[in-house]
Amino acid sequence: MLRLVPLGLLTLVSALTCWLYRASPSRLEPSRAWESPSWGSPFGCGEAGVDLFALVAHAEVRALALAVVVALFGLVVGTPLGAGAALLRGYSERAVGRACDLIQAFPTFLLALAVLSAVRVPTRTHLGVVFALTAWAPFARLALSQARVLREAAFVEASSALGAGHFAILLRHIVPNLFGVVGVQLGASGAAVVVSEASLAFVGLGPRDGVSLGGVMDQGVAAMLRAPHVLVVGAVAVFLTSGALLAAGRALGARGA
Hints:
This protein has 257 residues and is mainly α.
């Protein structure tokens, strides 16, 4: 359970910073542009004098919120879908397998590029919808493959012999035994959302408010030689956020197993 500590600390520190730190992520002070880290501004300043400490904290909270919502959507939709298809067998099993193949054959990042390019003012709602369109597929595939094994287990056959229906077997026996596998996928999906959101913001398709870890990295690349601390701050923030989510997923997987 110690693997949950990094995510908890990151969330707590980011939330407290958003609440207590006096600087705003949208306040610009051109006279402080590219200022180095100091006691007054722990991470220094970026383009047009934006305070990086405030910007990163707010971007962390929004990225984590987006990652949690999308990953939970994938879990809630994909896990019962895959497990139920395996339990029903036949056409349902084949249909869900083919749907997963189709979704996972097309990169989510390219889909997001295509959709967001057609949107005049992209928001995190648009990002969430695009990510959710594909987030369920990894959960469904994992549930499908694991449920194929579980459906042959003695306790499932005994439950069926006693008259339990497919829904009862799915709810009581199949889904609870999938938590170890889907817990790891939950963290991986959240980390993928953080990296994808930062990548889209880096190429100019992120939220127009500019409060994004990818936006910080974009500023850092533009001033790599003059203010290298900006790029370092953005890259480390993305690494820590995705790493914390992956570690939390492994902790959930170990607990579920």
